[in-house]
Specification:
The structure is a single chain. With about 240 residues, the protein is an alpha/beta fold. The chain is built from 7 helices and 9 strands, in the order E-H-E-E-H-H-E-E-H-H-E-H-E-E-E-H. Strands 5-4-3-2-1-6-7 form a 7-stranded parallel sheet, with helices on both faces. Helix 6 links the parallel strand 6 and strand 7. The chain starts with 10 loop residues before the first strand and ends in an 18-residue tail after the last helix. About 30% of the residues are buried.
Length: about 240
């Protein structure tokens, strides 16, 4: 498989199954636009996706009960979806399935660290040279599977780091634990968080700089930085 030309320089949203997917919904309600919206697993049952990443074989959903509560909805939608469904193997019962370009991506990135579906999706974005990827519902907050959550988060953050190093802009819902996005800004730089006036790292355009927490208000007023906040639903305009 070759890279898809239309994805080069694209602004992409990636939706997982976690609670912070609500921020994608609120974003759309507030007129935020993405060139493409991608999803993982049964997110396809809810969102209008351009691409779906389902790295388990379709047989896991169609022939077993191993996928738990996702099983019934995936059995219903997989034969009907008319979008590319990236997976580890083809299945005649699911016309949309295409084989994930694992050979090409491993060769191009010289890396094979992909232990969950989200990591495969982010690696695909990296390989496709998108301009920006925003992640929603990718929270790794599984209460009964802490090791899986920690391993999965580490892998996804590794690929996000590669994206950032490549110049791809990364956005994460402020409700998500990914990249410590749900941690107060004054607590993100370990050690400095213990100071009376903690140091904080803040963005400006495509750059980052460090300042003291006490300087934040003046910088915001001057338009030199912003603080990411929980998105709010749209409110009535002019009554």
């Amino acid at each position: 498989m070759e890279t898809i030309k239309s994805l080069e320089g694209a602004h992409v949203a990636l939706i997982g199954l976690g609670t912070s997917q609500i921020d994608y919904v609120i974003g759309k309600e507030n007129s935020v636009e993405w060139d493409e919206t991608w999803g993982c697993g049964s997110a396809a049952a809810v969102f209008n996706l351009d691409r779906l990443f389902m790295m388990d074989p379709a047989s896991r959903f169609l022939d077993t009960e191993d996928a738990g509560k996702q099983t019934e909805i995936m059995r219903k939608i997989l034969p009907e979806l008319q979008i590319p469904i990236y997976s580890c193997e083809l299945d005649d019962r699911v016309p949309g399935i295409v084989e994930y370009p694992v050979d090409e991506i491993v060769a191009a990135t010289r890396c094979a660290y992909m232990n969950n579906t989200v990591a495969y999706a982010v690696a695909f974005a990296y390989w496709s040279n998108v301009k920006q990827i925003d992640l929603f519902g990718i929270d790794f907050s599984y209460k009964g599977h802490l090791h899986f959550a920690e391993a999965g988060r580490a892998c996804v953050e590794f690929w996000l780091s590669k994206c950032i190093e490549k110049g791809i802009k990364v956005g994460v819902s402020p409700r998500s634990s990914l990249l410590d996005s749900d941690v107060p800004i004054e607590e993100r730089l370990y050690g400095y968080h213990r100071l009376e006036d903690p140091k904080v790292a803040v963005p400006h355009d495509d750059e980052w700089f460090v300042c003291n927490k006490s300087e934040m208000d003046k910088l915001i007023e001057a338009g030199k930085t912003t603080i990411q906040t929980i998105p709010r639903p749209p409110e009535p305009f002019k009554g």
